[in-house]
Design goal:
Elements lengths: L1 E4 L18 H7 L5 E4 L2 E3 L15 E5 L5 E4 L1 E3 L4 E4 L2 E7 L29 E3 L2 E2 L1 E2 L3 H5 L16 E7 L2 E7 L10 E4 L15 E4 L2 E5 L23 E3 L2 E5 L2 E4 L11 H5 L4 H14 L11 E3 L2 E3 L4 E6 L6 E3 L2 E3 L13 E6 L5 E3 L2 E3 L5 E4 L5 E4 L2 E3 L19 E4 L5 E4 L2 E2 L3 E6 L1 E6 L2 E2 L2 E3 L18 E4 L6 E5 L4 E6 L2 E3 L5 H9 L23 H7 L22 E4 L2 E3 L12 E3 L6 E6 L2 E6 L15 H4 L1 E2 L4 E2 L36 E5 L4 H13 L15 E10 L5 E4 L2 E11 L2 E6 L5 E5 L4 E5 L2 E10 L4 H17 L7 H16 L4 E4 L4 E5 L2 E3 L1 H8 L5 E9 L1
Parallel strand pairs: 1-2, 2-4, 3-5, 4-15, 5-16, 11-12, 15-17, 16-18, 17-20, 18-21, 19-22, 20-23, 21-24, 22-25, 23-26, 24-27, 25-28, 26-29, 27-30, 28-31, 29-32, 30-33, 31-34, 32-35, 33-36, 34-37, 35-40, 36-41, 40-42, 41-43, 43-44, 50-56
Antiparallel strand pairs: 6-14, 7-8, 8-13, 9-10, 9-14, 12-13, 38-39, 45-46, 46-49, 47-48, 50-52, 51-52, 52-53, 53-54, 54-55, 56-60, 57-58, 58-59
Helix pairs in contact: 9-10
Length: 865
């Protein structure tokens, strides 16, 4: 049966096409297995809690007619603001609007929540974006920029609430904006789409925009709610949705309510959090936590952003699930919430969970796999910028962030074909891991550390469970010995270590190899035994008597395997690695650029990658994780052969290191599609609300890039070439060293081309300061240089309409004919170098040497803002 819903009808009907319901909940009350709830575009200010289950072959489907056109929000719009003082406004909201849950009186709290000051689950939203809560009217009137925020400029938009005669009184600083003209909303509901009861199975939610929920902190020892989630059920699909502005968590695949063990650590105070966690796991097993009843969810193609704690959270309830093709970003950027449960994805007990092809960036930590990452596979994900931006105050070690954190798990945890490009790539307080064919641009931290509870006088080891393979049944408990790690066919590229990160870890006395290491490579595993040495040590010697220290061998570090890895820019292998490739003659660059939601990876790395140093990796190669004695295999028990790359291309018998099977010697750009559904959703809201509003936060504007060049080559208009589907017509070229910036005459975009390393990026807002100017039209050699750089960009962007080898040959010969014997320019599809007497010189030097007209020093500024 099809059930219809439309927010735009005057009164609710019977759910038929011609007489639709007005509220989604009306459909949720009657929908049964096999029914489809069809929701028209509109804003639905309600909490939807499905009542009935679907079945595996007949799920109940909730679908938005127009992608992201149906908006389910936990907020209500408020328009009766009165001016209070200065830029602060005030509104009285009757508490009756909140029902039994007033988010402005409910503090965020729970186990492992470490925020330095009290915050509430409620929020005030200005044009869809949550403002910053402060603790007094005075702080609201005189806001200070939050140095911990990733968005400091917006942190001065503040609010404060108090209770007065049955009202919630809200004071908010709008900095010159009139809240009665802007779209100002406040939190009212805790969730947007989530059952009230356990066991509401096989629900599909497709194509909705869900936002602004007053969710509570979601530790593993408590009931975990989210803006949307299945609430301890099986077989949900959440797809093609936009999920944003949850106070704590966006999607919850988490734990049900255990009344006797709900935040027990911070309410009863008589058991440590780790012990209550073990209790919660065992209780769940006894109460039906198994593959037949729980998990097997799918989260796919969702846009998840601007949540305070996590984009996706889960403990126990997410087992056997698939999380794929999602875009997760700006999680915990306000830094008003702090604790041990923060990340783009934070999963406990991710047993047989597959996390693939996600793009996770600009989060306080990308992915955190805590406890029981057994049978978990993390593959083909793109991680970057998951450490605090430069200049951001780092408030505690957990806010330092990394791409992936695996903690106190026995594995097997398989991490393959990922790009991990943040300053810290992985935090590895764990064992039983395999890293295969990854590109790793940051360091490994906390290797051999971070697995106890910080006891000084007594031992405080964390004993965590491991399971029967591909099951929730518990096989045993054990502490973490560290090691049991495999590193095959990875690329490690040391990036420049940021001084602010170095200063922070040194100030906290954590700048050691075992804690906040900032050196890229497997070097933190120095001293770990090889497999042969370790397993030989376990053989009993019956000639020795039992006594103190006899069993120490069972608590030593587990072995490490490393082979086929490549190291660049000073990245370092561990001392037991077999034949690592260490490139010391060339510098590698890796750069990520973004424009209008589209991301590109630029690198010259593949020019220097060797062939024939690796071998094909398989489940057989990787062996078994030590404690659970389980292979690194698919969750159905079948073996894995790593014979395809990130894009699914077949690999050779000696595959290239890293995620891409790109031809040796190539320079290339990898395109990652993106979108800005958030802006789309705001435009839809304008139309549906029937009015046009000024908005200060539709989409974050990129900051202007300031470029210092030494030479401006003007009058280049006669040079044009195909670029990204359009015709690029060069107006000016700015040059410094071997970097050139090409300015497009029509669009005023600026394209940065590193002529030495063969990578490029685009800039839409820019400002160039140049010291000298040359008229390219006055010298054919200058014109040849313009054409040459343009052709290089053409080749790098793969926009050539003809054979790039022919183009390079033609231009190279033309230019060289004019320059020889003074200078020979060598241009090929692989690289552009300028050579004199077999020594590399810069593009800037070439310009100085071939110019025939005098160069007049100028102080010239060109802007595109």
């Amino acid at each position: 049966m099809q059930i219809y819903v439309s927010a735009n009808v005057v009164r609710s009907g019977d759910g038929t096409r011609n007489h639709p319901f007005r509220f989604i909940q009306e459909a949720a009350d009657i929908a049964k297995a096999g029914d489809v709830v069809i929701v028209a575009p509109g804003i639905y200010r309600e909490y939807v809690h499905p009542v009935n289950s679907g079945t595996e072959d007949k799920p109940i489907v909730y679908t938005s007619v127009e992608p992201l056109g149906a908006v389910i929000t936990g907020a209500e719009r408020v328009t009766d603001w009165a001016h209070f003082n200065g830029e602060v406004w005030k509104i009285n909201v009757p508490n009756s609007i909140f029902g039994s849950y007033n988010p402005f009186t409910v503090p965020v709290k729970g186990d492992w929540f470490f925020s330095p000051k009290e915050v509430h689950t409620g929020d005030v939203y200005l044009n869809g974006k949550s403002m910053y809560e402060v603790s007094s009217i005075s702080e609201c009137e005189n806001p200070l920029v939050s140095r911990a925020s990733w968005e400091p400029d917006f942190s001065v938009f503040t609010w404060f609430s108090a209770q007065e005669a049955g009202d919630t009184v809200i004071f908010a600083n709008f900095h010159g904006l009139d809240p009665n003209e802007e779209n100002v909303e406040i939190s009212v509901r805790r969730n947007c789409f989530m059952p009230l009861e356990n066991g509401i199975n096989y629900i599909t939610v497709s194509g909705f925009s869900l936002r602004q929920a007053a969710t509570q902190w979601a530790p593993p020892t408590a009931y975990q709610d989210g803006l949307i989630g299945p609430h301890w059920a099986k077989g949900w699909i959440i797809e093609d949705c936009e999920i944003s502005e949850s106070k704590c968590s966006g999607i919850s695949l988490g734990k049900y309510l255990q009344p006797g063990n709900d935040n027990k650590w911070t309410t009863a105070f008589h058991k440590d959090g780790t012990q209550t966690e073990r209790d919660a796991i065992c209780q769940a097993v006894n109460e039906g936590w198994n593959k037949e009843n729980i998990g097997s969810h799918i989260i796919r193609r969702c846009d998840i952003h601007d949540c305070g704690q996590t984009g996706i959270v889960g403990h126990l309830g997410g087992v056997f699930s698939t999380i794929e093709d999602n875009h997760i970003y700006r999680i915990n950027n306000k830094q008003n919430l702090a604790g041990a449960e923060i990340g783009g994805i934070k999963m406990h007990a991710a047993i047989d969970v597959v996390i693939r092809r996600n793009h996770i960036h600009n989060c306080t930590r990308g992915l955190w796999l805590d406890w029981q990452a057994q049978g978990t596979r993390v593959t083909q994900n793109f991680f970057h910028d998951n450490t605090p931006p430069q200049g951001c105050e780092i408030s505690n070690p957990l806010s330092l962030g990394e791409d992936i954190f695996v903690e106190v798990s026995h594995g097997p945890t398989l991490i393959d074909h990922n790009l991990m490009l943040s300053d810290i790539s992985m935090r590895l307080s764990t064992q039983g891991i395999a890293l295969v064919h990854n590109l790793i641009n940051g360091s490994f931290s906390y290797v051999g550390s971070g697995t106890d509870n910080g006891g000084l006088k007594f031992q405080s080891c964390r004993y965590t469970p491991y399971h029967v393979p591909h099951s929730t049944a518990i096989a045993g408990f054990m502490t973490i010995l560290h090691g049991d790690a495999r590193f095959y066919n990875n690329i490690f590229v040391q990036k420049e270590i940021r001084q602010d990160l170095r200063d922070y870890v040194n100030s906290m006395d954590m700048g050691t190899m075992e804690e906040c290491n900032l050196i890229c490579g497997t070097v933190p595993y120095n001293g770990y035994p090889t497999a042969a040495k370790y397993f030989e040590s376990l053989k009993p010697d019956f000639t020795k008597k039992f006594g103190p220290g006899y069993n120490d061998k069972y608590y030593d570090h587990l072995p490490v395997w490393a082979y086929g890895n490549a190291y660049f820019n000073g990245a370092k292998p561990c001392d037991s690695e077999i034949n690592p490739h260490i490139e010391s003659n060339h510098t590698v660059k890796i750069m990520v650029s973004e424009e209008e939601g589209n991301f590109r990876l630029h690198t010259n790395l593949y020019e220097y990658l060797p062939r024939s140093m690796t071998r094909m990796i398989s489940t057989e190669t990787l062996g078994e994780a030590f404690e659970p004695e389980q292979r690194f295999e698919n969750r159905d028990g079948t073996p894995i052969l790593f014979d395809t790359d990130y894009f699914g291309r077949k690999r050779g018998i000696h595959p290239l290191c890293g995620p891409f099977e790109e031809g040796a010697g190539d320079r290339f750009t990898v395109f990652f599609g993106g979108h800005d559904d958030r802006a789309i959703a705001f435009h839809q809201e304008d139309r549906l609300e029937g009015r046009t509003r000024k908005r200060i936060v539709q989409k974050e504007e990129p900051e202007a890039v300031e470029i210092q060049s030494n030479i401006t080559m003007t009058n280049c208009e006669n040079v044009s070439f195909p670029y990204n589907g359009t015709l690029f017509q060069v107006q000016d070229i700015f040059v410094k060293g071997n970097t050139a910036w090409l300015r497009d005459l029509k669009t005023q975009k600026l394209i940065e081309v590193d002529c030495e390393y063969g990578i490029y990026s685009e800039k839409t807002k820019w400002k160039v300061n140049s010291l000298q100017s040359i008229d390219a039209s006055m010298d054919m050699n200058m014109g040849g240089l313009v054409q040459t750089v343009g052709t290089l960009l053409c080749i790098l962007s793969k926009s050539m309409t003809h054979d790039p080898d022919d183009a390079c040959k033609t231009i190279s010969e033309r230019v060289n004919r004019e320059l020889e014997p003074r200078i020979t320019m060598r241009l090929t599809p692989k690289y552009l170098k300028f050579i004199q007497e077999k020594k590399f010189i810069s593009l800037e030097d070439v310009i100085y040497r071939v110019k025939t007209t005098p160069v007049e020093p100028v102080a010239e500024t060109v802007e595109n803002l």
